Structures are given as structure tokens and as C-alpha cells.
Amino acid sequence: MNHIALSLKGIPFTVHNEIPWESKTVTPLYNPLEQLPVLLFPDGRPPIYNSAYIQTYIVEKYADQGPLLLPGDLDGNLLAKQIVALSVGSQDALVLVGWEMRRSKDMQSQKWIDRQMRKLDGAMQAFTDYIETAKGKPYVLGNEITIADIGIVCAVGGIDFTGLRPEWRKQHPVLSEYFDKLHLLKEFQNTKPVMFEMTEEVV
């Protein structure tokens, strides 16, 4: 998600991937919560973390560079950030359910899995509602792409990638059409998710 905002604003960056729950991780050196993403700066500024906050940082710190990525009015900006928060929350749920399902069957909690799945379903319905409220506009909050669109496409892309909700397109045709149009942008195509090879047991 943050890669896309940086790309749209023309800010050069390098991506370093790792698995923060494995023993060889360096993530705790930069984020006390031991979570990704983390944005590091070549000039030695302190790192920042949390995907939603990084998006806010990018659009506000680099407001004069590239597209605004916000509607531009207070209420619209706040709504865009709310949608980003929803998107990040749904991606967190996706990670949680994925990890639970990687545990041995006797250690899994079906109630925990069901709870995360409800979050995914609720988020997709909320995304659909936002798109329908846009009433035919090309983007969810108007005529220009914003962090809200980035968040929705990344969240839905993750769900589609994992295959955890194979019927989502039939259940949310408006969301499916919106996703299929936007995810073809080169900024999204260049940051598609990839599957990591797990080398340590999930506990």
C-alpha cells in the first residue's frame, strides 16, 4: 500500500522483504511492535511504522510533490484516512487467519478463524458501500485517485490473492468491477503480493 503512494508521488524507494516473526528478523530494530511495514530514511531520520500512519505521513510530508492523494477538504480527507484504517484492519485480519491456519490442526481455534473471516466479509461490504455511494465516479472519493482507493485495492487484492473468499466477486460485483479497473494501473501491478517461503514453525 505504501509502495503505491510513494510510486504515485514519484518518490524513489527500495523494498526489503522479511518475515518479522522469524528468529532472524531485524524488524524489532526499527519497530518496537515487531511489525511491518516500516519506512526507513536514507538521511537518518527515525523510522516510522504502521501502514495507515505511513500513508498519512507520505501525503502530508510530501503534499507538494505529485498527486495530493487526498480529496482536499477536511471531511473528505478524514474519510479517506478512515477507509485506509479499515483497509489496514482487514489486511491484519487476513494475516491473522492465515497464521492460525498454518498452525497444526489440533492447535487451531475455529472461533478465532471465524472472527477474522467476519472482519474480511465486513470490510468488503463496507468497501462496496463506499463505491456505491460514489455514484459512478471513477474513484471512491471523486474524480482523482486517493489513499482510499489504494487501501481498498490492496485489501481486496490480498483477499483475492489468498483465495480465502473465492466467491467474493459474485457477492460483491460492484467491488469486483472497481477492483479490476484500478488494479491494472502500473503502480498496483508493480507491487503485487508474493508468497514467502516459511522456514520456521508457527507457534
Automatic annotation (TrEMBL):
<dbReference type="InterPro" id="IPR036249">
    <property type="entry name" value="Thioredoxin-like_sf"/>
</dbReference>
<dbReference type="Pfam" id="PF13410">
    <property type="entry name" value="GST_C_2"/>
</dbReference>
<dbReference type="Pfam" id="PF13409">
    <property type="entry name" value="GST_N_2"/>
</dbReference>
<dbReference type="InterPro" id="IPR004045">
    <property type="entry name" value="Glutathione_S-Trfase_N"/>
</dbReference>
<feature type="domain" description="GST N-terminal">
    <location>
        <begin position="1"/>
        <end position="66"/>
    </location>
</feature>
<dbReference type="InterPro" id="IPR036282">
    <property type="entry name" value="Glutathione-S-Trfase_C_sf"/>
</dbReference>
<protein>
    <recommendedName>
        <fullName>Glutathione S-transferase</fullName>
    </recommendedName>
</protein>
<dbReference type="GO" id="GO:0016034">
    <property type="term" value="F:maleylacetoacetate isomerase activity"/>
</dbReference>
<dbReference type="GO" id="GO:0006749">
    <property type="term" value="P:glutathione metabolic process"/>
</dbReference>
<dbReference type="GO" id="GO:0006559">
    <property type="term" value="P:L-phenylalanine catabolic process"/>
</dbReference>
<feature type="domain" description="GST C-terminal">
    <location>
        <begin position="73"/>
        <end position="203"/>
    </location>
</feature>
<dbReference type="InterPro" id="IPR010987">
    <property type="entry name" value="Glutathione-S-Trfase_C-like"/>
</dbReference>
<dbReference type="GO" id="GO:0004364">
    <property type="term" value="F:glutathione transferase activity"/>
</dbReference>
